[in-house]
Amino acid sequence: MTTTATNGTGSSGVWQLFRERMSRDAIYGVASYWDARAGARTGMARSLWPSNTFNALWDERQREIVSRCLGPMNGHRVVDVGCGTGRIVRWLAENCGAGKVVGLDFSAATVEAARAESPALVSSGIVRFEQGDVVAGVDTLGVGTFDDAIVLGCLSVACRDEAALKKAIANVARLIHKGGRVLLLEPIHRSPLLRRVLDLGVEEWIACANQAGLALTRVDRMGFVPVRLVFSVRDLPRPVVAPVFRAGERLLDGAPWLAPLSDYKLLLFTRTA
Ligand SMILES: C[S@@+](CC[C@H](N)C(=O)[O-])C[C@H]1O[C@@H](n2cnc3c(N)ncnc32)[C@H](O)[C@@H]1O
């Protein structure tokens, strides 16, 4: 992986977002891009969308869909790969009863921000944030020591091709014990408009996971694309955005055939080998 400097500061303009999308293959998979975002944006916009109004709704929806899928996690040891500034790590420790949570990210500035936002959890030892690259290998976190691994929106930017995805998923699978779970919640697309760096379909993701000894146990979806495209870039008042956002998510929940219009796909696996 290259470490070319990037001017992708992630400002909130539509034009900036468009420029970033045009050069995504060069910037999204590079730590300096995420370092720059950690310095240039505030709140969840450092790791998510430019609009923090939209991010609050996105965060609520992701927590709902992850808990619907994983159920109670009392005492579980969990690793969040590509954790960004740590919103899900904190939620797992504070609200889901997880016993130990490790957040991993390859961006030094993002890891620093995550630690700075979680002082009590870090000093209590319940939470730890580490810097590392999921494609290169993350065995130092502890092979086979976790019950659950979760990955939200990381592998689709971290991996350039199928070989990298195979390596990254195998690296995540190595962290959990046999019988443990891997939850992927990722923008999986082949469309040039919606794909991030990786250009692979859901079936290919599942095949990569199967090769890593993971068996698919559940699928789900979220992020109704038309709403996401309109509301994720500019901060509008929550009373305007929330009803439309929730209506889009209800559509995805109620009509599985609308799955192609979902930005993020959830794939839950159990480690069998
Ligand atoms: C779209 S953000 C998602 C952050 C977080 N999972 C969330 O949903 O709030 C993608 C994150 O993946 C991290 N990332 C990208 N490539 C990575 C790699 N090869 N190894 C570890 N982290 C990586 C980035 O630094 C960034 O924080």
Can you describe this structure?
It contains twelve helices and seven strands. The protein has 273 residues and is of the alpha/beta class. The protein has one domain: Rossmann fold (3-Layer(aba) Sandwich), CATH 3.40.50. Helix 5 links the parallel strand 1 and strand 2 (100-105). Helix 3 crosses helix 6 (108-117) and helix 4 (52-70) packs parallel to helix 12. It is globular, with a radius of gyration of 17 Å. Residues 1-11 have low confidence and may be disordered. The site of S-adenosylmethionine (SAM) has 20 residues, from helix 8.
C-alpha Rg (nearest Å): 17 Å
User: Can you identify the CATH class?
Assistant: Alpha Beta
Which strand order spans the largest sheet, edge to edge or round the barrel? 3-2-1-4-5-7-6
Mean pLDDT: 92
Number of helices: 12
Low-confidence stretches: 1-11
Q: What is the ordering of alpha helices and beta strands?
A: HHHHEHEHHEEHHEHEHHE
Number of domains: 1
